[in-house]
Design a protein that fits this description.
The complex is a heterotrimer of chains A (108), B (277) and C (382). Chain A is mainly beta. Chain A is 9% helix and 15% strand. Chain A is built from two helices and four strands. A two-stranded antiparallel ribbon of chain A has the order 1-4. Chain A has a two-stranded antiparallel sheet with strand order 2-3. The relative contact order of chain A is 0.23. Chain B has helices at 4-11, 28-41, 77-87, 99-105, 107-116, 161-168, 181-193, 207-211, 219-228, 261-276, and strands at residues 49-53, 68-71, 92-98, 120-126, 172-177, 198-203, 230-232, 248-255. Chain B is globular. By secondary structure, chain C is of the alpha/beta class. Chain C is 37% helix and 22% strand. Chain C has helices at 17-27, 42-51, 66-78, 89-105, 132-137, 153-170, 180-183, 251-266, 269-272, 293-306, 324-333, 346-355, 374-381, and strands at 11-16, 32-35, 59-62, 83-88, 109-117, 123-127, 146-149, 173-179, 186-191, 235-237, 275-278, 285-289, 311-316, 318-320, 336-341, 360-365. The chains are: A mainly beta (108), B alpha/beta (277), C alpha/beta (382). Chains in contact: A-B, A-C, B-C. Chains B and C meet through strand 2, helix 3, helix 5 and helix 10 of B and helix 3, helix 4 and strand 10 of C.
Chain lengths: 108, 277, 382
Amino acid sequence: MSKKQKGQTRVCVYPDWCKGCGLCVAFCPAKVLVLNAFGKAEVAHEDECINCGFCELHCPDFAIAIKPRTRNGAGQPDPRSGWSDPESEHGRASPPEPTPEPNPNPEE
Amino acid sequence: MADVTQLIHDYLRHNKKFPHVFCAGCGHGIVLGSLIRSVHALGLPKDDVVLVAGIGCSGRMAVYVDFNTVHTTHGRALTFATGIKMANPKLKVICVMGDGDAMSIGGNHLIHAARRNIGVTALILNNQIYGMTGGQCSSATPQGDISMTTPFGSLEKAFDIVDMCMAAGASYVARGTSFHAIQLDRLISSAIMHPGFSVVEVFSPCPTQYGRKNKFRNAVDMYKWLKSNTVKVETLKEPDQKPADGRIPIGVFRDVEEPGLEERYFELQRKLMGQNR
Amino acid sequence: MAVQRKKRKRRELFALGNEAVAEGALLAGCSFYAGYPITPSTEIMEVMANRLPLIEDGVFIQMEDEIASMGATIGASLAGRKAMTATSGPGFALMQEHIGYACMVEAPLVVVNVMRGGPSTGLPTSPAQADVQMARWGTHGDHPIIVLSASNVQECLEMTVTAFNFAEKYRTPVILLLDEVTAHTREKITVPDPDEVEILSRVTPTVPPEWFKPYADTARGVPAMAPIGSGYRTHVTGLTHDVMGYPTQRPDEVKDAMLRLFRKIDQYYGDIQMADEYMLDDADVAVVAYGSVARSAYLAVEQARERGAKAGLLTLKTLFPFPRPAVEKLTHRCHTVVVPEMNMGQMSREVKRVNNGRTKVRTINRVDGQIITPSEILKAIL
């Protein structure tokens, strides 16, 4: 676990995969996450995140990703999520073309 | 903690529908994540990992992950795993079973797999209930607990999976919980690398079928219970004794290096064929 | 099995039917056996226990029960082995769930059932033919299956090879039914040279892994099979699955999957159904028999011919899918069909169904653990 300093990370929740069990909300030591009106986890106080990784390890639905706040490499917004980096100059970074998966059913 | 989730996503089958089938707060997803991290940390190629699952909630785990996966019949996952391991000993065979799967209908196969020390990892996801069929009492449901088939409280004692596997001769026996995910990663990794039969029992809460009937208000309560009612076995003064306060010991209970059945078999075969030449 | 008459490395053995089964299995390339001892099939297991550790990659394992034996056999089959298990009545009953699983996931394997008296523990050391319909319909759900039988020791060997070939060719479990008499008769047999026997193996994928559909429909209806660990990571499930092997409940996909299971057997019906005809060209009375009873029937037909009766014999080697054309031909030509069997009429039911009231069907049934003697059959012929 990397050093517990605040404000080093981006917390991103994929709402479509979140089932709202509330584990991340209940156990987050820095109270970063809350359950929103739809019953799903939402990032409320991202700057409080101490990068402990609990939510990422314990999300049963693989719906939370913690990423370092850097512009290059791992910090790139995930094009598969609806998450965008608000500090990015271009707003939503243009997602790289995902490698086309072979269509398992060409007839469809 | 960067990229834990991204890593898991890389091991999932992208043509399967997500979120997965498990209920909100079900511990099985956490165990699946832990399993993926363990396999990744060990550097095992996906092609060499076989995930054999039984029937029930835990059985549905196999379809989501991009290994060689076999979803077998109820309770018999270990028999398939034995066949696969003997047929191709190079494969890392991991058997995912529930408590009903491993202890009730498949109890015989579990004790025999332990006895013959076949080089298979048994991951027993103990949610103390039959979840998929709607919350009936299992052989791991604690005495006095309520289920659909024990509406007035269970009269039978629950199986202690660790005790039984130790008695049956398994060479690696451990217990973890889906709350203690980092420890679980460690337990599963060492179980996979263990040469003989390895068992990891995982307490994996079932909020929907077990929790609701047994005074847990929600999933979070169950994880809080796991947090306060477990104790690391290495911190116990008498590791052989059950803690007097009723807490559940977790950690590694036995780790003995013994060659697995497949190693002994092919060793014998080499010897025999050498004689014949 | 095409046996050419060339001088080759043949071996002659004085073997039990059970031993011949083991010889046949090894000849067909069986390299995995998982079993549990049960009378009267145990000798198959004993021979395999002695022989498999001596051949390259041969695996023998004794499991804790028949359920486990069948599970391990399927596991080995999925991992690319030619696998077999053998059992008798009570054990066969335990295996039924996994036979259904093998049908569903299309695992090629061979199950030998040496039939003994039943139900339940019954007559462990006496012959019967009472598992015929269980072999066909024992597991739950609608499914096609291939059931073969053998009537003498040489045939035990040959039919075991055939069973493996069918299993591999059609990706299906094949059941070989013997009865206690055939299994425990000791006779001289010839084990052919491996070069002179046609041995088939399953079709493996011919496309890169990303393009592989594990349950795709093909012209033959039999999809290619990738062994576990070969780089083709597939999902195998007993749930009804789509062409990718993933569970589905969509009616169209379920229908396609189920109909293909049937079609892959049905369209090769002519290849699968096997029956031996003896003196049937001019026969008025035909005996339809299988297993050890066919040998009694053979003598009865000879004796009947000596007495001037025009009798003939149809020995069924394939029991299911039922060899309808061969039996139908008889019912058009003969005035009587005699069906002797060591049960209360499990195959005569099939014969009557095909006969459709055209001729007289006389049944001889014994369930007292004794064989049907030639004189009993002769009496029914005359």
